[in-house]
Amino acid sequence: MKNIVLFASGGGSNAEQIMRYFSQSKTHKVALVLANNQNAGVLAKAEAYNVPTLVFTKDELNNGFVLRHVQAFNPALIVLAGFLLKFPADIISAYPGRVINIHPALLPNYGGKGMYGMHVHRAVLENKDPESGITIHYVNDNYDEGNIIFQQSVPLDGCLTPEDVALKVLALEHEHFPRVIEELLNEQDN
Ligand code: GAR
């Protein structure tokens, strides 16, 4: 069994899709869900799939506590699924090429500090972009700058509000993220 470890900050609809996708797998499993907020909706979703959880503080993320906890689960892949804090360098260097993130826009546009969730969708609408999309990428020490693994665009016809854009982008995330994770895990064997 290869272990997937998920980090999330909020509702966790992506985390839920990933847990659902791998719940039937004989080769891969979501072994741990970590959240930096005890009210994060993702925690109840993890419990529904019998996945252990850990809630941590920003200090614990940055002082080695979270790294030690993650190491105990021997992850083949660490997945940031709606995780909004800066990811610490010690975990990135402990798992080279094994930490990935999903971003709700077509990077390199609309990335960087402060560009997350609705802020991204609002900026895309304000610029009157005809399309948006998703980017799955490796995580490095700079926000949203790691090598791109997968992108998919979607036309924004009929989108009047940031919430309209979010719905289209989330649907794309749910459709592609679990499959891309599975492909990355399978490629590790080649
Ligand atoms: C997703 O759209 C994800 O791309 C975004 O937060 C949302 C989380 O939704 N992530 C970022 O903005 C990271 N910079 P979810 O909690 O329902 O999966």
UniProtKB/TrEMBL annotation:
Pathway: Purine metabolism; IMP biosynthesis via de novo pathway; N(2)-formyl-N(1)-(5-phospho-D-ribosyl)glycinamide from N(1)-(5-phospho-D-ribosyl)glycinamide (10-formyl THF route): step 1/1
Domain Formyl transferase N-terminal: start-end pairs: 2-181
One of the GO biological process terms: 'de novo' IMP biosynthetic process
First-level EC class: transferase
Pfam families the UniProt entry points to: Formyl_trans_N (PF00551)
This protein's GO CC annotations: cytosol
UniProt-listed Enzyme Commission number(s): 2.1.2.2
Leader sequence segment: none
Keywords on record: Purine biosynthesis, Transferase
Alphabetical list of InterPro entries matching this protein: Formyl_transf_N, Formyl_transf_N_sf, GART, GART_AS
Reactions listed under catalytic activity: N(1)-(5-phospho-beta-D-ribosyl)glycinamide + (6R)-10-formyltetrahydrofolate = N(2)-formyl-N(1)-(5-phospho-beta-D-ribosyl)glycinamide + (6S)-5,6,7,8-tetrahydrofolate + H(+)
Gene3D superfamilies to which the protein is assigned, alphabetical: Formyl transferase, N-terminal domain (3.40.50.170)
GO molecular function, one term: phosphoribosylglycinamide formyltransferase activity
Family the UniProt entry places it in: Belongs to the GART family.
Name of the molecule in the record: phosphoribosylglycinamide formyltransferase 1
Organism: Flavobacterium subsaxonicum WB 4.1-42 = DSM 21790
